[in-house]
TrEMBL record:
<dbReference type="Pfam" id="PF02637">
    <property type="entry name" value="GatB_Yqey"/>
</dbReference>
<comment type="function">
    <text>Allows the formation of correctly charged Asn-tRNA(Asn) or Gln-tRNA(Gln) through the transamidation of misacylated Asp-tRNA(Asn) or Glu-tRNA(Gln) in organisms which lack either or both of asparaginyl-tRNA or glutaminyl-tRNA synthetases. The reaction takes place in the presence of glutamine and ATP through an activated phospho-Asp-tRNA(Asn) or phospho-Glu-tRNA(Gln).</text>
</comment>
<keyword id="KW-0067">ATP-binding</keyword>
<dbReference type="InterPro" id="IPR006075">
    <property type="entry name" value="Asn/Gln-tRNA_Trfase_suB/E_cat"/>
</dbReference>
<dbReference type="InterPro" id="IPR018027">
    <property type="entry name" value="Asn/Gln_amidotransferase"/>
</dbReference>
<comment type="similarity">
    <text>Belongs to the GatB/GatE family. GatB subfamily.</text>
</comment>
<dbReference type="InterPro" id="IPR017958">
    <property type="entry name" value="Gln-tRNA_amidoTrfase_suB_CS"/>
</dbReference>
<keyword id="KW-0436">Ligase</keyword>
<dbReference type="Pfam" id="PF02934">
    <property type="entry name" value="GatB_N"/>
</dbReference>
<dbReference type="InterPro" id="IPR023168">
    <property type="entry name" value="GatB_Yqey_C_2"/>
</dbReference>
<comment type="subunit">
    <text>Heterotrimer of A, B and C subunits.</text>
</comment>
<dbReference type="InterPro" id="IPR004413">
    <property type="entry name" value="GatB"/>
</dbReference>
<dbReference type="InterPro" id="IPR003789">
    <property type="entry name" value="Asn/Gln_tRNA_amidoTrase-B-like"/>
</dbReference>
<protein>
    <recommendedName>
        <fullName>Aspartyl/glutamyl-tRNA(Asn/Gln) amidotransferase subunit B</fullName>
        <ecNumber>6.3.5.-</ecNumber>
    </recommendedName>
</protein>
<feature type="domain" description="Asn/Gln amidotransferase">
    <location>
        <begin position="344"/>
        <end position="496"/>
    </location>
</feature>
<keyword id="KW-0547">Nucleotide-binding</keyword>
<dbReference type="InterPro" id="IPR017959">
    <property type="entry name" value="Asn/Gln-tRNA_amidoTrfase_suB/E"/>
</dbReference>
Length: 497
């Protein structure tokens, strides 16, 4: 692993400081049921409407692992090139809190389901200094979520909502390989991208289905790691990056004032853009971990692992390389693969064209990124809500390719498609927007234009060749933009001699 990026440093009174970052990402596994019960997991349900007797820790209730949760965690590990442990075990993490009805959390400390993997990243320039590098993933373990305390429902009491209690989480633990906020942002975006491609988590940080615990320490370059703090449950990429900036600066100020960093758990306040202390940070022994006596170890066989591997889709890095091989620019390939919904839309458009991908990919890419994205941005929609389907987009480009529509007419048809949802061929037929290649009609119109502009014809023949474009433009205007530009060019050239 790359160890340090020289491009990001905190300037203190005593010199430069380096920041060391690790992320523990909690990703809710995208299934219809919880990790150890059949209760639903849909977001936004009424409080305590999705709670089984197991989730509420009623006496005598025994957990049964959800096979799909294990499958999705294994598929995620495979997508990250991680080691899959054929034998793993659940442990009890003991602590007492109002939203944890069991008095313990079922997790995996000693024998996680997934071992070491890696995530290649490329930080974005807008985020600040950072390097293209590979970030190590230490482990992925499966655990159940706790419930949620609601403090805003009553002036003197807190209420407990157990809908999230027992929801399956993957805790994806990175190595402390990141050295700048930009690298942490790139890591989190890349991880979310992979999870969405795999389908194991929807990556919705606003709804809490993906959140990050941010571990930060500082040191003088080349010195051993310093004491780290952990800022809990940060729910956006931007807030993760701000947490790192604020917490690292705070630590530098403390150390340069002669103080020491306390290992503790902190919270990020986005309104004040600062971190603040929550509680002292516990160590593993404080939780008194021991193997869960109600659950047998997980033992994965060859058939299960083979099915998991076979079910993986083409992953973003491979898809991006394939798009570049089709002739797309690196920028276009990156845009089209950044989000799985965009990639699926583009693939569907290529399929609907009925032509070899390499022959239509460039035109389809240009249209999707400029025309469709521009329209969706104007309408406040994302691609999943596009009023134009991939098949309609392919049909529109097909009408341009076969000469039925000029570029100008295609833009007119596209605007009508956005308003009506009609197919482009239907719009062309109903509104008479078909491009004409009638040579006789075009030549007649050219003759009229030249006759009306005899002075400019003389200027052209006297050497002012730039007027050629004027004659072409006038002809296109006279024909309502419906003339084939290539035929118009040829007709003008012929008429001018």
């Amino acid at each position: 692993m790359a160890d340090a990026s020289p491009s990001y440093r905190i300037q203190g009174a005593t010199g430069e400081w380096e920041v060391v970052i690790g992320l523990e990402v909690h990703a809710q596994i995208d299934t219809q049921a919880k990790l150890f019960s059949g209760a639903a997991t849909a977001f936004g349900a009424e409080p305590n409407a999705q709670v089984s007797l197991i989730d509420a820790a009623m006496p005598g209730m025994l957990p049964v692992p959800n096979r799909e949760c294990i499958r999705q965690a294994v598929r995620t590990g495979m997508a990250l090139g991680a080691e899959i442990n054929r034998w793993s075990r659940f442990d009890r993490k003991n602590y007492f809190y109002a939203d944890l009805p069991q008095g313990y959390q079922i997790s995996q400390l000693y024998h996680p389901l997934v071992g070491e993997g890696a995530i290649p990243i490329e930080p974005e320039e807008k985020d600040g200094p950072g390097e293209a590098k590979t970030i190590g993933v230490e482990r992925i373990h499966v655990e159940q979520d706790a419930g949620k305390l609601m403090h805003d429902q009553h002036p003197t009491r807190s209420y407990v909502d157990l809908n999230r209690s027992g929801v399956a989480l993957m805790e994806i633990v990175s190595r402390p390989d990141m050295r700048s906020p930009a690298e942490a942002g790139a890591y989190l975006r890349k991880l979310r991208q992979v999870l969405r491609y795999v389908g194991s988590c929807d990556g919705n940080m606003e709804q809490g289905s993906m959140r990050a615990d941010v571990n930060v320490s500082v040191r003088k370059p080349g010195e051993p790691f310093g004491t780290r703090t952990e800022t809990k449950n940060v729910n956006s990429v931007r807030f993760v990056m701000e947490t790192i900036r604020q917490e690292a600066s705070r630590q530098v100020d403390v150390l340069e004032a002669g103080g020491s960093i306390v290992q503790e758990t902190r919270l990020y306040d986005p309104d004040r853009n600062e971190t603040r202390s929550m509680r002292s940070k516990e160590d593993a022994h404080d939780y008194r971990y021991f193997p869960d006596p109600d659950l047998l170890p997980l033992e994965l066989d060859d058939a299960f692992l083979s099915e998991c591997a076979a079910s993986l889709p083409e992953l973003p890095d491979a898809k991006r390389a394939r798009y570049e091989a089709l002739g797309l620019t690196p920028y276009a390939a990156a845009v089209l693969t950044a989000d799985v919904e965009t990639a699926r839309w583009f693939e569907a458009m290529l399929d609907a064209s009925g032509k070899p991908p390499e022959s239509v990919a460039k035109a389809a890419s240009n249209w999707l990124i400029s025309d469709l994205f521009g329209a969706l941005n104007r309408l406040g929609k994302d691609i999943a809500d596009s009023p134009v389907s991939p098949a309609q987009g392919a049909q529109l480009l097909g009408l341009v390719a076969d000469g039925t529509l000029s570029g100008t007419l295609a833009k007119q048809v596209f605007e009508i498609m956005l308003e009506t949802g009609d197919d482009p061929a239907t719009i062309v037929e109903a509104r008479g927007l078909k491009q004409t290649s009638d040579t006789g009609a075009i030549e007649a119109k050219v003759a009229e234009i030249l006759a009306a502009n005899a002075d400019k014809v003389e200027q052209y023949r006297g050497g002012k060749v730039a007027l050629f474009g004027f004659f072409v433009g006038q002809t296109m205007k006279a024909m309502g933009g419906k003339a084939n530009p290539q035929v118009v060019n040829e007709a003008v050239k012929k008429a001018l001699g």
